[in-house]
Amino acid sequence: MPDMIETKPLVLGLENVHTHIDQHHILQGVSLDVAAGGATILLGRNGAGKSTTLKSVMGLLPVSQGQIFFNGQSIETSKPYEIARMGMGFVPEDKAVLSTLTVAENFRLSMFRETEKSHEKLEGVLDLFPALKKFWKRQAGLLSGGQKQMLAIARVLVCDHTLLLIDEPSKGLAPIVVDQLAESLIQIKDQTKVILVEQNFRLAQKVGSDCFILDDGRVVFHSSMDELSRDKIMMKKYLGI
Amino acid sequence: MTTEPLNFQTRIYPFRQYTGWMIGIGLFLLPLIPMDLTTYLTLTVAGISLGMLIFLIASGLTLIFGLMDVLNLAHAAFFAFGAYAGFTVLNLLNNAGWIDSANLAQSLFYLALALGAAGLAGGALGMLTEKIVIKRVYGNHLMQLLVTVGVSFVIVEILKIIWGVNDEVVPVPMGFQDAFIIFGVFIEYFRVVAIFLGITIFVILQYILKKTKLGIIVRAGVENQEIVKATGYNISWIFTLVFAAGAALAAIGGTMMAIFNQAVDPGMGDQFLIFALIVVIIGGLGSVTGSFVGAVIVGLSFNYVAFLLPKMALGVNFMIMAVILLIRPKGLFGRD
Known about the structure:
The complex is a heterodimer.
Chain A: E1 10-21, E2 24-35, E3 39-43, H1 50-58, E4 63-70, E5 73-74, H2 80-86, E6 88-91, H3 103-110, H4 116-128, H5 130-134, H6 145-157, E7 163-167, H7 175-191, E8 193-197, H8 201-207, E9 210-215, E10 218-224, H9 225-230, H10 232-239
Parallel strand pairs in A: 3-8, 3-9, 6-7, 7-8
Antiparallel strand pairs in A: 1-2, 1-4, 4-5, 9-10
Chain B: H1 8-12, H2 19-29, H3 37-67, H4 75-95, H5 104-132, H6 141-163, E1 168-169, E2 179-182, E3 185-188, H7 189-211, H8 213-223, H9 225-231, H10 235-261, E4 263-264, H11 269-283, H12 288-308, H13 313-327
Antiparallel strand pairs in B: 1-4, 2-3
C-alpha cells in the first residue's frame, strides 16, 4: 500500500483490529492510519466491515484483538462515552435521530456540556442546516428522511470534536438531498476531520480526500480519492463500479 | 334549488372530539344513581386517595417496566421493604413517645422522616438489585421474570427473618387520625396528605422527564442507547439511577400504604403489584400521565364497586383494563 499524507499528524490508528459479532468474525485484522484534515472515506461492498470498523473505533462493539489509537491514546478498551468525551463524534447509519424527542431536545442532548460556546456553535450549525430551525419544536420522528439525516449530522456538530465518524449518510436519500448533504459535508470537513463510510461513490468522490477499501474484514487498498477514480481495475474488483 | 352538503361530523354530532371526555365524566357520575350525594363524595375522596397511593407504586413501575422495559416482579418486594423501613422509623418514634402527642405539623414531619428512610432504603436496594442482577439481563424478558421473582423471594425472606412472619401494627402519628367535614363529607387528614403527595410526585416526575436534561437523556436512552452512549453519557449509570428511583417510589408507596392500612406484613406487596400492573397497562407503558389517570380510575372504580358490589371490587378493574385495551391497545396515553 502506498503511504499517504504522512506529513500530517495521525488522528486515528488501527493495528490488526479483530471484532466478533456473536460467533461471526467480522473484522479480521484491520490496520489503517488516518491523518488529520479533510475526509477519509471507507469503501467496500455490503458486509465488508465498514460500519463494524466505525463501531469498533467508537467502542460500541468490543474489540477482540488489536489496538486502536485516537490522538495517540489507546482506546480499544475504553467505553463509548469515554471516547466521545475525548472528542470523537459518531453518526450511526439509518438517519439516527431520537425520534421521540423534538429537534430542540435532540440538540440539547448533543450538548454534553451546555456552555455559551456550545450555544454559539449551535447557531452556526443552524446556519448550515436552516431547515432544522423551522422545525425546532417538531418531533424528530415526523421529519422527512433528508431532514432526519441533516439533524443526525447537525447533532454532533454542536460539540467540539476532533474526529467525526459518519456512517452512510446518503442511504435512502433522494439525489437532490444527497447533493445538499455533500455541500454540508464539504463545509464540515474543513473544520473537523471526518471518516465517512459511503456506498455512493459520487458523494465519496466529492467529499473525500483519501480512501480505504475494505473487503472481508481487512483493508485491501489505500490511496487518494483521485488515484482510486483512475484505477478502474480496483473499482471494478472491490466496488463493482 | 341547491342544498348544502351535509357534514355528518359537525352537523349531526358536533362534539365528536369530546366523546372520550363525555364518556369518562358519565362513568364518573354513574355511581350517583344508586347512592346519595354524601356517600358518593365520601367514596370519591377515598377513591382518589387510594388512587394516589396506587400511583406511588405504579409510577415506579412505569419507570422500570414502562420506560426501561424491565419486567420487574421484585417491585412488590421493594414496596414491602419500604413499608418495613417506614414502619421501623415510626416504631422508633412511637417508642420515644413522640407520635401519640403529635399535632398535624409534627405528624407531617414524622411522616417525612419515615418516607425519607423508606425512599433511601428502597433506592439503595434498587441500585444494588440493578447493579448485581438486572444489568446482566437487559433485553431478555424471560430472564428478567425469573431473576426478579428470585430477588423478590430473597427480599421477602429477609423481611421475615428481621421482622417475623406475622403482621405488625403500624403506629400512626396522632395528627393523621383527625378528620374534617366538608359538605357533610368526613375527610381524614391522611387521605389529603396521600392526594397531595401523589400529585406532587406526578408533577416532579413530569417536570424531570419533560423539562430537564436528565429527562431528555432517559427518554433518549430508552429509544436508542447507542446514540446516547456515543454522545458522551454513561447510560448504564443513568439507568441504574432510574431503576433506583423506581424502587424508591415503590418503597415510599409501601410506607404510605402501611400507614393507610395501619399494618405491615412481608407479602403485602403482591396485592398492590396487581393494581400497579393494571394501572400501568391502562395508562400506557412508559406514560407517567397515563399511570396517574389510570391510578385515579382504578382507585375510584374500586371504591364505588366495593360499596355497591363488594365481591366485584377487584374484578371490575380487570374489566376496565380489558375494555380500554379493546378500544386502545396501547393504553390511554400509550404511544403508537
